[in-house]
Amino acid sequence: MGKAFEQKRNNLIADCFIAIHERFENYLQIDSRFSGTTCCVVLLTRRQLICANTGDSRAILGSYNEGRWIIKPISRDHKPD
User: 74: exposed, middle or buried (C-beta count within 10 Å: 0-12, 13-18, 19+)?
Assistant: First the structure.
């Protein structure tokens, strides 16, 4: 994949997050200061794992190897503090 495609893909993911935020703000009349949601999206291709998240959520990658689970965080929580 070329850099131009990667940039378009990243922009698309960011644009989706912004569109959802705007829908909440403009159409649903919800005061987002007193509510909360989280979203964690993972896109897996043959060569890449891409993660986008917002809110108090975290994506982890788990693999089972030689009788035990190996857990790796692939994102960080977005905490208000």
Answer: middle
> DSSP secondary-structure letter at 31?
-
Residue 22 lies in a domain: yes
Residue whose entry in the numeric block shows the structure tokens 């703000």: 25
80 in any annotated domain: no
* Between 31 and 11, the higher pLDDT residue: 11
Q: How far apart are CA 34 and CA 30, in angstroms?
A: 8
**Whole-structure pTM value:** 0.58
**The domain containing residue 22 runs over which residues?**
3-73
Q: How far apart are CA 30 and CA 51, in angstroms?
A: 27
- Give the integer Cα–Cα distance in Å for 11 and 42: 15
DSSP assignment, residue 61?
A: E
